[in-house]
Design a protein that fits this description.
The chain is an alpha/beta fold and 278 residues long. The chain has a single domain, classed as Rossmann fold, CATH 3.40.50.1460. It has 9 helices and 11 strands. The protein starts with a helix and ends with a helix.
Length: 278
Amino acid sequence: MAEMSDNFRCLRAARGSLRDPLAWASPHSLPSLRLHWQTRAVVNVGAPWSLAEMKQNIMENEERKKEKVYIIESPSSNDLLYEKLEGNALKNALFLAGIEIEYYLATDEDTFIQAFDNIESDIVERSKNAIFSNPFIHISAHGNKEGIGLTNREFISWVELEHQLNKINENPVLQCEDDEIGFFSSITLCLSTCLGLYAEKLVSDDKPSPFAVLIASNEKVSWADSLTGFITFYHHMIFHDEGGQDAVEAMKTAARNNSFDFVFGKEMKALVDKKRSK
């Protein structure tokens, strides 16, 4: 477990673990490679970076790296009426911790898609200022085994979510590359939904994974457990710069809910396996 945790931080938010392509690349981009939990650093617009190039630039520009969490919330109409807004509460908690966030209230498919377009634009803009960006994309909504429900009762299937993620992944400034494995996503996807771990079905052998790491629950989960768990996760992962696996274990303990778990995209898993085999 200790070895996985170390790997889990593949570029440990740019500070320490660039030596291991595993660090648990978080969604930040390799600088996050915290296992791809930070799977790749975005610096300046241009061609995808190799791990070696990224390592050099991360070390030279460490002060320019700042992790950011993008929250997209789509509560039910009843949740909206009674202000049961988990994503908004998470936003306030992260703000108090000094973690950079961007929050979108998306009540229908059009605004949900617009939120992803805005996220991509923001990441590209940050890259122009030499700010490393390994995006954490956090979705707060009701869900089931097939996808995510929106406020107006429209439904986003896992396939449609994959499409939105890949619009970000296909941007050259956001792509990570390994000599043997090829290109891979730099997104850490956090699903604060019931049965969100079913999004792992997007990981298949015949296509690239739309995320580096998925963090979600494999059961129905209360808003209280989800909020407590993800506040803890981000606190450990970003504020204390701990490994991804340790952060997930901490969220389980804090929420007293063992249904939270993580899934590697197949490229990130290959990086982890490659590291372990050496």
